[in-house]
Amino acid sequence: MTRWIAACRLDQIEPEDMVRFDHDGRTFVIIRAPEGTVHCTDGLCTHEKVHLADGMVTDHEIECPKHSATFDYRTGEALRAPACVNLRTYPTRIAGDMVEIEIG
Asked: Which intervals hold domain Rieske (predicted)?
């Protein structure tokens, strides 16, 4: 069953920044794009399971802090080795002042 979960307030995320969100034994990263849209991916790098919230966001890419693998956070696509497996992405919406993600 899919449901929308309130993850954080929008004002907690600066443009080109991210926050970690943990829910029900899972971990995610929520990113605010330069144009103000909000995106959500799995929180762990697909290469060595390091949390991406400790990395960097530039343009539309998130960089893993351990080996500098990069992903397009809009699609989850792995863009630079050593990661070769894409991240899972989740529908995201802004409801009032809250960021919500849809998880199953």
From this structure: 5-101
The sign of the dihedral angle between the CA atoms of 91, 43, 78, 37 is positive
Sheet holding 98-103, edge to edge: 3-9, 98-103, 92-95
**pLDDT the model gives residue 1:** 67
pTM: 0.93
Q: List, for the chain, all residue ranges whose pLDDT scores fall below the cut of 50.
A: none
User: How far is it, in rounded angstroms, from Cα 23 to Cα 30?
Assistant: 13
| Calculated CA dihedral for residues 93, 13, 20, 27, nearest 10 degrees | 10
Query: What confidence score (pLDDT) does residue 49 get?
Result: 92
Q: Nearest Cα to 69, choosing from 35, 41, 90?
A: 41
